[in-house]
Each structure stands twice: as C-alpha cells, then as structure tokens.
Amino acid sequence: MSDTPAKTFDSYLRRYATIFVVIVVGIGLMVGCSYSGLAPSVRLALILGLAAVNASLVVCFLMHLVTERKLLLSMLFITALYFVALLVLSTYGYHDVPHLKSGV
Amino acid sequence: MSQPEAHPSHGSHSEPGFLRKYVFSIDHKIIGIQYGYTSLAFMLFGFFLMGIMRWQIAHPGEAVPLIGNFLQTVFKDAAINGVVSPDLYNMFGAMHGTIMVFLAVVPVLTGAFGNYLVPIQVGASDMAFPRLNMMSYQFYLFGGIVMLASFFIPGGPAQSGWTSYPPLSLIVPTDGQTYWLVGMVFIITSSLLGSVNIITTVIQLRAPGMTWLRLPFFVWTEFVAAFLLLLAFPPLEAAGLLQLVDKLTGSSMFLPTGLAVSGAAAHAAGGGSPILWQHLFWFLAHPEVYVLILPAMGIVAEIIANNIRKPLWGYKSMVYASLALGFLSVLVWAHHMYLTGMGTVIATFFQTTTMMISVPSVIILTCLLISLWGGSIRFNTPMLFALAFLPMFAIGGLTGLPLGFSASDLHLHDTYYVIGHFHYVVAPGTIFAVFGGIYYWYPKMTGRFMNEFWGKVHFWGSLLFMNVIFMPMLSQGMAGMLRRMSDGGINYALSHTGTEGSLPNMIMEMNRVILWGAIGLAIVQIPFILNVFISMRKGVKVANDNPWDATTLEWQTETPPWVYNFRKEPVVHRGPYEYSVPGFSRDFTPQTEPDNIGAKH
Amino acid sequence: MDIPYTSKVRPDTGLYNGKLGVWLFLASEVMLFGGLFSAYTYLRIGAPLDTWPHGWMNVTLGTINTVLLALSAITTLLAWAALKTKQFGRYKLFGLLTILLACAFLGIKSYEYRDKLTHYQVQLNDGRVADGHLVENNKDADYILLRGHYAANATELLDGRAKGHPAHEELKIARTDIKSLKNYGPALNNFLAIYFSITGLHAIHILGGIIVFAYLWGPGSKMWFTAPVRFTNRVETAGLFWHFVDLVWIFVFPLFYLT
C-alpha cells in the first residue's frame, strides 16, 4: 500500500496525533501573529508562511503524498504550477499598467 | 490484501433492459454514441443560428425568409415581422459561440470519439468509472437543455457573446445570463467527470504490453486534452460562480467603480474589475482551443497513418509536441487581452509564449505532411477530409500569428479577421477531422461503410463552401470590419463613404458571397446526414472486422465491438503504426501480433 | 468482465483507480479554488485606497472552526487506520466523530453567516453611519431599531479591530433620516462578496463530505463484510477529499479572519 507500514492502530494514532498538535500550534502562532504589533506586510508574510507550513503538513503526511510515486507527483506539480501562473500573472498584469508606472 | 473480492455490479451478465442499454447505459460505446448524436444535433442547431445571422448581415433589416414568422412567434419584440433585431442578433451570436464550443465540438471530440475509442484503443473493457461516465453525459445533456431553455424565457438567452464579458453581461436586464451561467456549471461538471475518466483509463487500464509509446497518437491527444479540461476549466467555473453571485446578490466583483449605464450611475459597491473576468475566462478559453484541435489532430493522424500504408514519420516527436502544446497552452491566455491596457512586460511574456506554442503545432503538422512522402495513398473519403485538414488548419494557425503580436493585434482585435482565423482552425480544421473520423470509424460502429460517392460530394462541397465563407472574412477584418455589428457594417460604411478607413463596396459585397457560401454549406450537409442514417441499413457490409487493414486495437475485435470490447484481454506486442514492415507478408502488422507468429506469414 | 485495479494497486503506477480518480478531481479542485483565491488577490490589491476592510470576522469562532476541521481530518485518518487494522467498531466510532465535527463546523459557520446578514450599515442623510444588528424593522413603523453605534462615515468602520468605537446601545432611527440600509451581505463590498463566495463554496464541499461520510458510515459500510479492501479504499479516498477541504480552509482562515 501507499503508506509506510505502520502495523498497529496505536502507531497510526501516535503519528497523526503528533501532526495534529503541530498543526494546532501553527494555528495558534497564526492568530498570535495577527494580533502582534508587527508591520502589516511582515504580519501578512508570516501568517501566510505559517499557513503554507500547515498546508504542507496536511498534504505530505495526512494525504500521504510523501509516499506516492512520481507519476502522481508530476501531475500535481503541473497543477501547482498552473495555479501559481494564474495567481502571479494576473496579479502582475494588474500592476504592469502604463499609467500606474508613470504615476499619473 | 489477499481476501477474495466480490465485485457487486459491473459483472452482471444478464441482458440489460432497454432503458439500461440505451438511455442509462454505462457502456462507453453507447455513451459515446449518445454524445455523438447529441453534439452533432447541437452543431446543426448552432449552424442554423449562424445562418440566420448571416442573412441579417447580408440583408440587414429584411425579414428572414421561410422562418420569419416562426422567429416572431418565439422571440416576439426581438423579431418584429421576422426581422432580426440587434438584440436577437446578439442572442444568436452568444448562443452560436457557446453551443458550438461547449455543446458541439468539445463533446463530439472528447465525449463521442474519446469515449468510444480511448478504452478500445488502450485495450480496456470499459472506462475506469462507467457510472461517472454515464453521469458525465447526463450533466452535459442537462446543461445543454438549460441553455436551450433560455431561448424560451422572457427576454431571451444570454446576449453578451460566448465570452460573457462583464459589465455588459451583468447589466443586460434579462435572466438569460443566469441560465447561461447555470448551464455552464453543469457542462463544466460534465467535462470534469469525463476528463477524470479518460485520464484514469489511459493510466490504469492499458492492456498488458501497451506501454506509453505504443499508445496510438489519438489516445495521446485525448489524454492531453483531458488534462486541459481538468485543469483549465475550473477557473472559468470559479469566474462563473462569482458572476452568478454578482448577478443574483447585487454584489459587484466584476463591476468597476464609477460605472454608468444609460447615463445613470450603476448600482455598484465599487472596486470590482472586468479584467479579472477576462483573466479567469481566457485561462480556460485559450486552452479550450487546444482541446478543440488536439483530438482533431489525433483523428487525422490515425486516418493518415492507415491510408498511407507506412508508419507515421516522427511519432515520438508528435507525442512530445502534443505534451508541449498542452503544457504551454495554459500560459498564453492574455494574448486575448492586449487591448485591456496591459503593460509591455506582461505583453512581452504572453507574446513570447504565444510564439513558442506555434512550434509544437508546426511540428505535428510537419510530421503529418512528411508522412505522406513516398506513401501509396488511398484517397477514400476519410482520407480526403484528413488531407484537407492539413492546409485548412495551416491557414488557421498561420493567420493566428499576427494576432499573437500585440502590435498587429491592436488593429485586428475584434474584427472579422479574428472570426476568419479561428473558424479556419475549428470549422474546416476540427470539423473536417470529425467528419473524417465519422467516415473512418463508421464501419467499426455499424458493420457497414458509408456511401463513398455521397461522401465525396460532401467533402468537395464542404471544402469549397467553407473557404467561400471564411476566406473573405480575413479581408473584411483587415479592412476594419468589426465582428459584432448586427447590420454587417452597412451603417458604418454609409456614414463614412469616401473617407479614409471606410469599408469599400467590395468588402460589403462579400457579406452576400458569404451568405451564399453558408447556404451552399447547408445544402452539402444533407447528403452527409442522409448517408449516416441510410448507410446503417443499406451501406456496403464490411468483409471482415478490419476493413481498412488497420493496426490499432479497435480493429482487432469484432464488429461492432462486444459489450466489454474484447472476448479475451488483448496483449500488445508493438507500436501503433507498423505498416509495410519488411519481413511480413501483409502490409500491416496489428499491435496484437506477436513477433514470432507474424514472421511466418 | 471486471474493470481491473478497482481495489488492487496497479504495479507500474502504484495506484488503484479510485485513488487516481480522486487525486485528479482534487487537482481540478485546486484550480477551482485557485481561481477563487486569484480573484481574492486581484480584488484585494485592486481595491481603491481605504476600501478593503480588516478584522471584520470573529477570530474566536474562526479559530475554533479551524481546529475542529483539523481534528476531523485526523479522525478520518483514524477511521481508515481502524479498517486497515481490521477494527470495524473503531471505524464506526471515528467515522461518527468525523461527521459530528463536520456538522459542528457547519453550525458555527451558519451562526457567523446569520450574524453578518443581520448586521446592518445604515447611511444617514446627515453623512453619519449607524452600524449594528437590526433589532426591529417593522414596515408599518416610521423608525427602525438597531443595536450598535454611530460612526462619522463608513471608512471609520473598515478596521474592525480599531479601539475607541463607542459602546453598543439601542439606536432608534427615523426612516426619514435614512439614505440607505444595507446588511453585511455580498452587495456591501467586494470583501464580503468574495468572502461569501469562497466560504459558501467551501461549505458546500463540507456538506458533500458529510453526505459521503454518512453513506460510508451507514448503508455503505455493509461493503466491509463483502469487499473489505475496496471499502477501506473508499474510506481512504473520501479522506483525501476531506483533507483537501481542510487544506482550503487553512488558507481561507488567515485570508479572511487574520489579515
């Protein structure tokens, strides 16, 4: 099967409970960041960074992506790439407008 | 993992009832045929809408002959005395585009041909998820019915083009746009289920020995097209949902600050962006073009390989080119948006990717062209359509280059040049491939050939009239005729008579030529439609299961294929196009033929 | 004639059909929510100066929901692990927990929706804004009752965490003083429009997950006794979908509640 052989229920339980605790800590840090007095841009970057860490924990360990094969990973890589392209290019296109540059 | 598994449902061998067999079938072949009939009916309907529009363009303000009264009955104020009003023209324009792209050409390629052929060609007994396959067709049908229903609501269907650009789509005060959006959500769901099915089938259900590079090129193109549908359609669904929220709750995500409608300030909270819609829309709609063209290339490759009696030249290059085409097609979308005031950096990026994507298209076309060299070509009807595809698609592709550069696009944008360009790709391009595919696989589906003489009449007539229709459009566009004028540009031409940049008589006269072309095209489709139905009973019977002497797996099973395709699971020993291999007595070597047996023939 | 690899893993791809199918579906879902998140980003950076609100959401409720959903992701895995180790009773327990947690999430979410939809911004003729929950809006009466406070203008209300808003009290506003009356629904501004769009679609996904898990917990669980491997796979694929729903929320929470 796809996951590394963890034979007993308790070993599953221990592994997933650990990940859950880490995720909850991440959530706590995010909320803490939100109420901290940091500059808004720093705060945004920190919070999204923490969200990304939590998300990668979910993807890698709860969805068992660490144990999947290349075929699936490459398909998901392309998906991620397209998502980033959509997000970045449309956002960049918004800023790359002549009248914004000249400051009119 | 060792317990014996019971498979509750799929294996039942009892004869299914009529409903199970033909209406709620989970057999990919029946579903493929359902898709085929439905999408071709939609295609005919979309063509019919276009005919009325061409009449209005050629004879603005004159009542539509024959069906004028009918139009008035259905559309009331929008067709007084049978004359097409600008509103009705806009409705027909929007629905022609929507129906042709989303309900006709994509479903006929991926739903009909993809469904029928992909499982057989990879050597599987059915799709990976037969029930999802059935649902996919039902969602598609329902989406289509919602679209059609919008013709009969007060105010008529959507009238903002198939692109549904806001703010126009949001401020037209009818429910047509809501129907359009709801219909699209169903169609997108259908294509999601269909593409998951095709990809899983190709990856998981390949027969023993069917390695990746032994897949027929058609399967590759369906595979890539399915990925495009899977990944590019959802952003449009997202945009559609947002537009639906805008339409139903009065929010203004796509309405800009300070929007005024008919001189009065529109009710908008401000801060919305029509450009956002364009990004999300074209993120789908450009890859959609490659969904329209890739499987068509696949069909053409199958027909050409079979009728030149030699291997395709550069099969591997074609496979890699189709992958590159699929990958790049998602990164070119904003070349539809040069006129939105985008800056030079982002325009340069999209110009570059647009030029890059022409390379793999040319690779595929060149491989097909070189394949012809030295072949002993059989000029049957499917082959004629496949051969005509090459120059027609080439015209379509090459006329696209000036649209990919922002400098020339600024002049050509939204003119008839654009219409001519993409219709060359889709009409004499993709639809010719569809016709060719129907003539080619008809004997496998029915056990009879379609009539060859009437097939040739259909081909030559279509080739002639397609060009009569679309070639003048390129000139009209370069002369500056805009694509959305409901009077065919006559008022513009008259009000600027004699001035620089006006539309000369010669250009305006072309509108009538195109109308005659459209009438001619309609007439030569009659033999095709009759041919499809009459040949089912009266066509020449096939002599054996492989009447074209083909190599791929669908020809190595009975005709029409058994409900689970193969009586015995096929084992694949060779590539898809082993024609005229030295050392074999026959000029074709089926994929199932083992080396040691074949050599003895 | 059975379709191969419905429960067995195909050796060269390392997948069974259902798992590949669900991953492909999720890839499509990534692009669906990707489109929505791109729209969010585009609208947020494109918002005219001083029009994008901050701190309008209840962080306590949001945090509770985030933890609930993360916990339900764990319980789906434990339900699956119970089947892997052949403990059907434990599967029933953790399956039920998952469904309950998901229902709790939806309950809190609908409370938040209700809170927003009964919250009104009243533009007064004198330029001021009254902001608060509607207490009474009787069509026959010539006034409305609002529980909230006055602000000099709508911009003042943009920072929900700002100190110094006056205490909430019952405001009686004559209808003749009202220029416009808008609730905190999608039409108020783009923040709320995209908030309702994304969280609404997410809630539909939660609902779909509940239906799937309820089926696998109730009538669908009979399959355990006839085809245990296939049933375990079904629970695993349903779990994959559920993790994706959790994943979306992991980004929805900071984007709408925390920044």
Describe the structure.
The complex is a heterotrimer of chains A (104), B (601) and C (259). Helices cover 77% and strands 0% of the residues of chain A. With 104 residues, chain A is mainly alpha-helical. With 601 residues, chain B is mostly helical. Helices cover 63% and strands 1% of the residues of chain B. The model of chain B is unreliable at 1-12 (pLDDT under 50). In chain C, strand 1 (119-124) and strand 2 form a beta hairpin. Chain C is an alpha+beta fold and 259 residues long. Helix content of chain C is 58%, strand content 14%. Chain C has a five-stranded antiparallel β-sheet.
Number of strands of chain A: 0
How many distinct helices of chain A? 4
Give the mean pLDDT of chain B.
92
Instruction: Provide the succession of SSEs of chain A.
Output: HHHH
- Structural class call of chain B reads mainly alpha
This entry's quaternary arrangement is heterotrimer
Shape of chain B: globular
Residue windows where pLDDT falls under 50 for at least 5 positions of chain B? 1-12
Name the largest protein-protein interface in this structure: B-C, 55 and 52 residues
Using the alpha-carbon principal axes, give the shape of chain A.
flat
The biggest beta sheet of chain B is recorded as:
2 strands, antiparallel
Write the layout of secondary structure elements.
The complex is a heterotrimer of chains A (104), B (601) and C (259).
Chain A: H1 9-35, H2 40-62, H3 70-95, H4 98-101
Helix pairs in contact in A: 1-2
Chain B: H1 18-23, H2 28-58, H3 68-75, H4 86-122, H5 130-149, H6 168-171, H7 176-204, H8 217-249, E1 260-261, E2 264-265, H9 274-308, H10 315-329, H11 344-372, H12 381-398, H13 401-404, H14 406-412, H15 416-446, H16 452-478, H17 490-495, H18 505-538, H19 595-598
Chain C: H1 17-46, H2 59-84, H3 88-117, E1 119-124, E2 129-136, E3 143-151, E4 169-174, E5 178-183, H4 190-217, H5 223-226, H6 228-258
Question: Which features would summarize this protein structure in a list?
Answer:
heterotrimer; B: 601 residues; mainly alpha; C: alpha+beta; 6 helices; elongated
Brief summary of the model shown:
The complex is a heterotrimer of chains A (104), B (601) and C (259). Chain A is mostly helical and 104 residues long. Chain A has helices spanning 9-35, 40-62, 70-95, 98-101.
